[in-house]
Design goal:
Shape of chain A: globular
Radius of gyration of chain B: 13 Å
Helix content of chain A: under 10%
Radius of gyration of chain A: 14 Å
Shape of chain B: globular
Largest sheet of chain A: 6 strands, mixed
Oligomer: heterodimer
Number of strands of chain A: 11
Order of helices and strands of chain B: EEEEEEEEEEE
Structural class of chain A: mainly beta
Order of helices and strands of chain A: EEEEEEEEEEE
Distance between the termini of chain A: 41 Å
Strand content of chain B: over 45%
Amino acid sequence: KQEVTQIPAALSVPEGENLVLNCSFTDSAIYNLQWFRQDPGKGLTSLLLIQSSQREQTSGRLNASLDKSSGRSTLYIAASQPGDSATYLCAVRRGSNYQLIWGAGTKLIIKP
Amino acid sequence: EAQVTQNPRYLITVTGKKLTVTCSQNMNHEYMSWYRQDPGLGLRQIYYSMNVEVTDKGDVPEGYKVSRKEKRNFPLILESPSPNQTSLYFCASSPSPKPVETQYFGPGTRLLVL
């Protein structure tokens, strides 16, 4: 059974720092991995999607990597800003119905 | 504006009183899905629909019903709500169920069952 884990559950850093969020999964048979951002009252927004054949994806200050063999993904945020404060979720896509399996998220607080 | 809408956004009800949470998308997407989110847990899929009149169970379907009579709408029905269904619910849609497609999420419905 696929399990997705995100550690730490919460993280607080000063503005301007570069930071890394971690996501691990137990079964490497995945189609892709996605990182989402969750803001209270606003639903979830897809940040980056990495196909199983890819190693990384970049969007602005965000860079996500994928290492299927070790069951790990990281989300790198450069030059963090208070507006980056949110909960970040990772999810892997697998199975005949392309189901998303989710981690519980990392709550990120960027202190001004 | 392309979006997924859910109503109501907040709901307090009592055990056993039937309720429906509506979900609508204006992007002509084939695939729609319902999730619930509980503290400390990842989102868990309740039901999904590959297209009109085609629905299937996700990981936690007990106590829920869905229907897909129109492409744009995918209501979630709780026939007899219980306190363990207190949760944050999300509806999502995507152009198709293919893995390359990302999902678009509604703003969520926070449900409290007393």
